[in-house]
Automatic annotation (TrEMBL), chains A, B, C, D, E, F:
Name the UniProt record assigns to this protein: 3'-5' exoribonuclease YhaM
Limits of the HD domain: 163-279
UniProt-listed InterPro entries: HD/PDEase_dom, HD_domain, NA-bd_OB-fold, NA-bd_OB_tRNA, YhaM_exoribonuc/phosphodiest
Gene3D superfamilies per record: Hypothetical protein af1432, Nucleic acid-binding proteins
PANTHER family found in the cross-reference section: 3'-5' EXORIBONUCLEASE YHAM (PTHR37294:SF1)
Gene: yhaM
Top-rank taxon, per record: Bacteria
Transmembrane segments: none
Keywords: Exonuclease, Hydrolase, Nuclease
């Protein structure tokens, strides 16, 4: 199998297929037009310039298209950059498809769904169980394909479900260690906490923010959906208020987007588990790219920290 | 007419009726029980101690009860304190009623309602108009009696409507000065922005926070109500998202409880008008209590500032 | 009439007059010298590069000069950039003048002056009136031509007077709504609050900071001028201290340049009105440049917010 | 068995044994001396006043002494206060001992030690294993009796070991979920992270800060001890630097006492696990004291939050 | 000589003269009036209660009066408190005077004046010299008697001059070490930097804030005085702007009251020298009150730090 | 003598020797490789581009090498940039050496050492003296050659010793002015405070951070070394704890890297003297580069301030 774009060294020639993520036209310092492309496969992304581009090029090379590219991998301002020597749209005979160029969660949908179904099945509180089951059924397709975020962590197809399942696993362990925990609340909170992303983001594979996402945000969207779902199911217990509170407070602090801090034990745990899984996702993926004895690149969402991989680790 | 409790000087004897706002039992340094009361009339509040109280006293003197009190006005730790010489519950023959001891907005309900009705009538956008009218009808009684807050500003019966009407007046003037303003949005935002307080607070006359108020808060409550009302009225335009955004952002900043800052012109104006009217309410009432050449007491919600009344002002 | 530079699309050819705002020499990546120009008309500004510039070019194309330019509008790092094909200084026969290329307040000087004169005439406190009138007379020419700031809001010729008049209008309305306001103080504060800019900035049409502006700033400059003017007019009442306080505190907080926060009601109002008018000036101008359903560019002085123009607005 | 001091209601008479935690002399408003005592048993603490105390009283009633007290439980400024009617030192015939009045971790020392020994045994990296084992042996007695803090969380006898074991349990689970984790580092970091408290605090049962604790603090103390222990054991690998870094960074941020933020994956996890276990310890203990439908008292170390116990929880 | 009030231990009887600093009437928990006095001599202050005070007492015992007091030194809420047994106004035959009860700088006025005169004499820049000399002459009496602050540091008679002289000494040494320093600027800045306190505070011996002090503050007051003095002396060089800047910026940061940070080398040094001398004044005086091996009380203006006196220091 | 690189104007041709500080390969917009070099002599640094570089060039032009360069001084994004026309490695016959191209402290090593030796000799406390002397002996060579920092202040060969000696001079003067100061502690603190940089940085002439420097930092490194040195010298007095505290706290605040703030007088002074000398070093060097009437470039470590050189200063 061909190696991915992230594995090329400066100076190597790339000759393979890539997916266009973004494309914009510019004018070079010599006054000639060029296309600035962001190309990707499952291993990563690379900037590319198509110098002296024609209007026809602009029509052909648009976001979402697959292309066959030949070019040399160089560097510009410390970022890898592909100097395109030739580029053409894929043809049916190339036998490649967009789905193969998009990063996906490293687990399959059936396993994800099974885990979610399992914890809902185990719930003892019927109100919490009915609301949670309703949401999972209602959003099942999107829940299984959406990313958990546009960038930073779990920002790939099925990232949302991957994040949920990973958090459920942590929650189950903590329930064993701290038996006072109300598992129904915690599991429901985990499953529901980021479902508002399905309305905040435009779609699963190349997500951007919707108007509702920009002006309201996934947290108030979901607080509202829980109430209207409860009405629809004719459920009116305090469980609904607690679930709303858990969603509302799961970012932990007002300045992080939660108008109320966690005021219920399981809300606080939801916030902590969310942080740990998001961090591990970011740190582990960054560490995978470096060798023992090296620092990772700076991770924006972790206060720009670069993490060190001890030299006594296995590479 | 008898002068109110706030107008008494240290050393004067008070002999009149007061309403018990709070009551709690304590043990004095001599080991004897006493009742610590907070008594009020429309001019203000005063602490009072009933030394060597009996269990019968505890049964009689509870929050919401009216009492006839004789006592000397003293001072303890810089707060006025009434030293009770005699106290008894009111009798029917006293001819006083609780409603006369509660502070009320300095305008009547008809005038308040008329103003609100007028601006709704003038709205041109049918979606905004229908939603706003629905809320006003649905919550009419509470809208006319609730305070705008538990403390700080407009914290009296009908304070919410008083605040709304005052803000509408400012908004109408600004609309004249900046004609680009979308008056429908701004007026609807003003009328709806604090309606969530009706669920956040327990009642109009002696409000405390409800569980929903503590765990969710009036902003998300109202964001949710606008959506469900729109569904009920089968309205689905972008107006609903904008109205939700205006409520969501009207505290201006994440750390003040708005997960999104104002991103629509009228949302920003709503925030500014809300601030101005709240500040004027606090500052004017504080300045009324002092003479020219004096500073007011520190106002908690205005960064603990004490305001100066110039000596060339009329008293 | 020719359309302004801001109205050109990428790819269009511009062939008209522009004013040079700034000019600096650079060395291109091919080692050849070039001139980097910032060109403007009343609709906006555009970067331009004159490649392979000669020493003669450097002498001709300097800030303040008018030029005839032909070039294609392109883009570099998301900013519009004019690729110059030909450029020459204007000739008398071109019949254009610099004054036509500078943005000006959308009202005339007579109207501005009339409003200011009117509110001074209405003042009842003779001390406040005399001080205010003295300043207006003394600085009349500059007051009518200076901008209110170098950037962000009212940053155009006569912006200062435009800002003052707009604030006076708001103040007059608030005086009606809150009759306790001392109108003399508020109007005087509005007229005087930014007059120190006349010493802080070098001139009205292409202002930069003076040494006094950089080391002292317009607030302490004006606090000082009020005192010395009062001495000159042999006025010594508390009004002078209050006026100084209003100027000193009008930025609202120490970290925004006011060593004292507003401690007088009218000082607080001055701060609020200043904010509202500055914000409306920024937001309205940004919204004018976009169509319904779009976001404005990020506005630096409003916490980098981009504002949304609802799609149901008229364009 | 007698009920503990925390379980008494206002007005009840207490007649039992208590341990004196602190004692100080005061002068009452009537000019007479009194003793202000803080008395405790395993259920909590209570303030007490011994009015008109004699010099003999001062000699008898000192911190660490056990006393027999009769008195009425009252309230002063919202805190329970015991009004002493009679008090005397315990006599041998009373058959009580100080150890019975001190709160202890709810697990026994053997179990704590077994867990620590087990994870050390499982370590694969000999350098990490030797250093960790050395510390555990060297400080075994104190490690098993010290609290983890003077207040807030695990602030009881054997609290440190209880905290370590609880964290080890979480770590073992996370290791299963995220197999990339270097378990040796994480376990060693957990065991060592708060050992500096043994020098920071004066003793296990009534700890106060030592001079070294006040001027240096447990983090730098432990960073230093790891280096000197490594020297003693003639170990010089990068493992030592990493272990020092984990201790140094385990408070997470400079303003929380860590001059370096976590820059190694296991350091970040150590910080997160420490937080979770400390929070669960605080929240669980606070929730135990309230009934379903109530809020706990405000928890100082959790940003003064009061936590709600849902009414559908079992009490 | 009698020992001062600060040197008494709890339980000792005081029988000597004290100066009344503040006096206020209260009502005791038994309903009887009392006088709350703050009494002082040069060693410190003590709270005192005169129980069951008469109206005559209130007339006799007012701030500024000297009294002969007998009473026992006790403690209330960790503060020393004098329980008055007898108190009477001083009589001529007592032979004591108020001046002996006020703390004064530990140097005499002639030495202070000599130092100031010396550095002015040495100045080379005639503009700086003339302005500085003018201020010193104009304010000579107040400059020699005012405190440098109401609390925290140099808060005693002649504290301002003491602070100036101490700073001049540091400045002279730094001038030797960093010869580039413009000594004229630095010395003038030191002499002038706090002169505005003379208008900010009411008087030298029992200072409170004036209205101008509260609304404008000593920094803008002095910035203004430098300009008007320069006008009066017909000096108009850049030196005046620099001197104004030095005063304006000497608190170092906007949030500490300086709208401009130091932007001239000598302005930065002025800020640093001011800090050092203020800190040394606070720390040295606090350390004088404790023995080796003890911590001082917390010093409010130094972030509430308590300083340790090493046990190997001489006491 | 040839003028240094910092003294060239835009447009001038440079033809002399320079030292390569950093070198990295890039790809130009025309797709050709180039070398990006940072070249320096004792007067400063300049960016340089070697266009169309060959693999041989990459081998020749590496950090630490001396080169003969001919090129024109231009500008790119407001930074000077050398456009290389020819470049070659130095040859023995050129008679230049790297040591002549590195900035060094403006005093010689003997004078630095003499001062340090003198203050150690004068110490009275034998414990402090022995520890200090031990460190100076142990690290003598590095102490005399290391910089005090990688950037900002004293960032040149022997900068550390220069900084120490300069601080000792200030300390000696302050000791005269405030005789209570414990000179032994203060001098020892100054000599030791930054010695941890010797382990934090890789070497004296082209320092980068070591792993220990990145993960632990010079402050904890030195705190640890003082303890182990004391053990080695069998010294165990409180002096050691105080010295550790002084190092630990010398950055003044937690957010600046000191987990404890200064709690000993001499620790506070150490912090203040460190600041003053660092600031004077930065400000003086920046002011040297500009003429009277100009502002310096912004100084990063001084909150990005640009300092003004008064026009009445000598240039």
């Amino acid at each position: 199998m061909k190696k991915g774009i992230s594995n090329y060294q400066i100076g190597e020639t790339f000759d393979h297929f890539l997916l266009i993520k973004t494309a914009s036209k510019g004018v070079a310092s010599n006054g000639k037009p060029f296309l600035s492309l962001l190309l990707k496969d499952t291993t990563g992304e690379i900037d590319a310039k198509l110098w002296e581009s024609t209007p026809e090029d602009e029509g052909l090379f648009t976001p979402g298209e697959l292309v066959k590219v030949v070019g040399e991998v160089g560097q510009f301002r410390n970022r890898a950059q592909l100097k395109i020597q030739s580029i053409r749209p894929v043809q049916p005979t190339d036998g490649v498809q967009a789905a193969d160029f998009v990063e996906k969660a490293p687990v399959n949908k059936e396993d994800l769904m099974e885990k979610v179904t399992e914890v809902i099945f185990e719930m003892k509180n019927p109100n919490i169980q009915r609301v949670t089951r309703h949401f999972v059924k209602h959003y099942q397709e999107d829940l299984l394909t959406y990313p958990a975020a546009v960038r930073n962590h779990h920002e790939y197809v099925s990232g949302l479900a991957h994040h949920i399942v990973s958090m459920l696993n942590i929650a189950q362990q903590l329930k064993d260690l701290y038996p006072d925990i109300n598992a129904d609340l915690l599991y429901a909170g985990i499953i529901l906490h980021d479902l508002g992303k399905i309305k905040e983001l435009s779609n699963a594979s190349s997500p951007s923010y919707t108007l509702e996402g920009k002006l309201i945000g996934h947290i108030p969207i979901m607080v509202e959906e829980i109430r209207s779902t409860a009405k629809e199911l004719q459920i009116d217990g305090e469980e609904i208020t607690i679930l709303q509170h858990m969603i509302l407070s799961h970012h932990g602090k007002a300045e992080w987007g939660s108008p109320k801090p966690p005021l219920v034990r399981e809300a606080e745990l939801l916030h902590q588990i969310d942080r740990i899984d998001a961090q591990m996702n970011m740190v582990n993926r960054a560490l995978k790219k470096v060798s023992p004895g090296e620092f990772t690149e700076r991770i924006y969402a972790l206060d720009q920290r670069a993490f060190y991989k001890p030299s006594f680790e296995e590479s």
